[in-house]
Amino acid sequence: MTLIHEIISLYILILFIAAALSWFPASSSSGGLAQTQRIFGALTEPVLRPLRQILPRPRAGGVPIDFSVLVAILLLYFINRVI
After folding, report:
1. In the chain, what are the helix, strand and coil shares in percent, each to the nearest 5?
2. What angle do CA 64, 38, 21 make, to 5 degrees?
3. What's the CA gap between 77 and 54, in Å, rounded?
4. Domain ranges, ordered by start, for the chain
5. How would you class 56 by CB atoms within 10 Å of its CB: exposed for 0-12, middle for 13-18, buried for 19 or more?
6. pLDDT value at position 52?
């Protein structure tokens, strides 16, 4: 069970990093930041995409707010505590 807990904890960390990276605009599509964002996007999209389809996207000042990362982290944390 410890391995499963570690994997879930690592994925929660990956979600945090991906969310933090989304706050920084990449200056070019071939730069290191853009490549890092693509890697983290590829790792997190399989979990976040279904959540984004289910969750409403409220607007704040005309900008949609994405709560899918928060919901995914909470779900994974709950799953990690239950198992």
Report:
1. 70, 5, 25
2. 55
3. 19
4. 2-82
5. exposed
6. 94
Q: Which two tokens stand for residue 58?
A: 């409220």
CA distance 22 to 81: 28
**Residue 70 exposure: Cα atoms within 13 Å on the Cβ side:** 5
Contacts of 36 (CB under 8 A, 6+ apart): 21
Q: Could you report the per-residue pLDDT of 28-68, keeping only the tens digit for each?
A: 777 889 999 999 999 999 999 999 999 988 998 888 889 99
Is the pLDDT confidence value at 74 over 90?
yes
pLDDT of 1 above 90:
no
- Please report which confidence band the pLDDT of residue 75 belongs to, taking 50, 70 and 90 as the band edges: very high
